[in-house]
Amino acid sequence: MSEEGKERSLNFIEEIVENDLKNNRHGGRILTRFPPEPNGYLHIGHAKSICLNFGLAKRYGGGTNLRFDDTNPVTEDTEYVDSIKNDVKWLGFDWVNEYYASDYFDQLYAYAIKLIKDGYAYVDDSTSEEMAALKGTPTVPGKPSPYRDRSVEENLELFEGMAAGKYPEGSRVLRAKIDLNSSNMLMRDPIMYRIKFAHHHRTGDKWKVYPMYDFAHGQSDSIEEITHSICTLEFVAHRELYDWFIEKLGIFPSKQYEFARLNMTYTVMSKRKLLQLVNEKFVSSWDDPRMPTISGMRRRGYTPKAIRDFAERIGIQKRDNLIDVSLLEFFVREDLNRISTRVMAVFEPLKVVITNWPEGKVEVCKLENNPEDPESGHREVNFGKEIFIEASDFMEEPPAKYFRLKPGGMVRLKGAFIIQCDEVVKDAEGKITELRCSYIENSKSGEDVSGLKVKGVIHWVNAQEAAEAEVRLYDRLFKVENPAAEEGDFKDFINENSLQVVKALVEPSLKKATLEDKYQFIRNGYFVLDPDSGEKLIFNKTVGLKDSWKPA
Ligand code: ATP
Ligand code: MG
Fold it and tell me: Which HAMAP family match (predicted)?
């Protein structure tokens, strides 16, 4: 069931879960996990995995562990751990346990010792080149390394020596002894442990050997008694190895299931690539609003509900595909339409003087905060003698059916009066500097008895009270749909015009904007305050009112 409660058919993972529950596998219990490696900020692809793992467990009365897959000391950092927790919470999910694969290092080491003792693992002194040469190809069987038949005693002594830091990095590895003829190359004696003299963000300098992904992930699942371990398709070939380790160790039988990663148009979806964008200053930070990161989307004004609805809508597939970013924007717009406060902001100010307005007079106009939400109420905006409208809402020589302001024409100012343009003032170069207009006295919105019919309604700000704001407008970060699939460096396809900074005059209520408030600048789009905002107001454009984007 979707958030709205609409029925849809079960996806293949839900079918598996329902079947397991029906057969009382694991006593009818479901426990999933979300296992990020803390080597970067989470992106929208992770959001899909989060929604899947947490959503599935929730739907079937189970829970989800948050497990940091921190087995590679070189790339991991506590900053990333904090941002990941923050992002998962912001998306609206709670984990039952917070775990770290590094907490299992002792247990994993003990598992390795057991496999050595049972004759299922050996220490190999071959160089990586030698190993590669012996490995064969999918059609040519591998050849045994000269170290494959070491005795259990020798293997134990060498592995303990590795762990004690007796041997240099790269000099030896621990390998599982499986099947050199397997058509699955991962089963041809995969590496379990390598020597690394690196400082780990949690275990410090205690360990000199670190487990490989394949000898950490499944065992971590098993230690936590995860019932359904869901990962992306590139791990299909790893499943056989996942099952092999669990079987040989005789530990809790977690099972792995795979689904297609989310790829989205006009962006890249890998932490390694996103890190390059940050380090090489193509963007300002991990949470730059152009980034496909959860933190970037939050800063841009996307809502957790929009992201969850998007994840639900795209569902899960067994084949890789590329999702149009417009679909995500559709859900963002849909949610923002529901919740955002309508305000007025003028981007290209053109001064309008109301000639028949008494000097110093202020008239309070009531504007609806959000017509989609009757509870949202009204706010007051002062009308006065001098206002600004958008320069584009006036045309001196308009085409037929132009319903905004034109010489001699009338237009309604949103929430205020009907005005008529009496005179166009220009400077020496002929540029329009000001419009002189008169207002129709009994035409105030809500109490209009003028009997006039005007088709156009335009927005405005009071010149006396408007606040200046910097507005950041964003475009796609890349010029091509799938930069990662192009030949050459993905960074060659960056859109150098993805950020445009403009000035605007905004109504005074925006001086009280907080980072959580969502606004619709009427007729202009959805906007949100940026954390860079201080004395000076800074807004980000979240998305336009309509899908107007077209490929170049
Ligand atoms: P990246 O290549 O961006 O670093 P990753 O897969 O290495 O991604 P992890 O931190 O290892 O990132 O991933 C945590 C979880 O999120 C994994 O279960 C992974 O399968 C899932 N995940 C990562 N990227 C995507 C994606 N694009 N779509 C769906 N799930 C994803
Ligand atoms: Mg990874």
Answer: Gln_tRNA_synth (MF_00126)
- Contact status, residue 500 vs residue 473, Cβ threshold 8 Å: yes
- Cβ of 256 closer than 6 Å to ligand 1, yes or no, is no
- Tens-digit pLDDT profile for residues 330-383: 999 999 999 999 999 999 999 999 999 999 899 999 999 999 999 999 999 999
Locate 152 and state its tokens: 């259990």
First-residue to last-residue Cα distance in the chain: 38
How far, in Å, CA of 549 to CA of 476, rounded?
Answer: 9
Calculate how far, in angstroms, residue 36's C-alpha sits from the geometric centre of ligand 2: 7
Residue with the nearest Cα to atom 27 of ligand 1? 45
Residues 199-243 have pLDDT tens digits of 998 999 999 999 999 999 999 999 999 999 999 999 999 999 999
- Enumerate the active-site residues: 37, 261, 271
Q: Distance from the CA of 213 to the center of ligand 2, in angstroms?
A: 9
| Separation CA 192–CA 119 (nearest Å) | 14
For residues 229 and 31, give the distance between their C-alpha atoms in angstroms, rounded to a whole number.
9
Other C-beta atoms closer than 10 Å to the C-beta of 391 total 14
* Amino acid identity, position 496: E
* C-beta of 342 in contact with ligand 1 (< 6 A): no
Atom 22 (ligand 1): residue with closest C-alpha? 46
Q: Which atom of ligand 1 is nearest to the CA of 274?
A: 3
Does the C-beta of 37 come closer than 6 Å to ligand 1? yes
Give the H/E segment covering residue 499: strand 499-506
Structural domains for the chain: 3-259 (3.40.50.620), 265-341+469-543 (1.10.1160.10), 345-459 (2.40.240.10)
Looking at ligand 1, which atom is closest to the CA of residue 263? 27
| Ramachandran region, residue 315 (left: φ > 0; alpha: ψ -120 to 50; beta: rest) | left
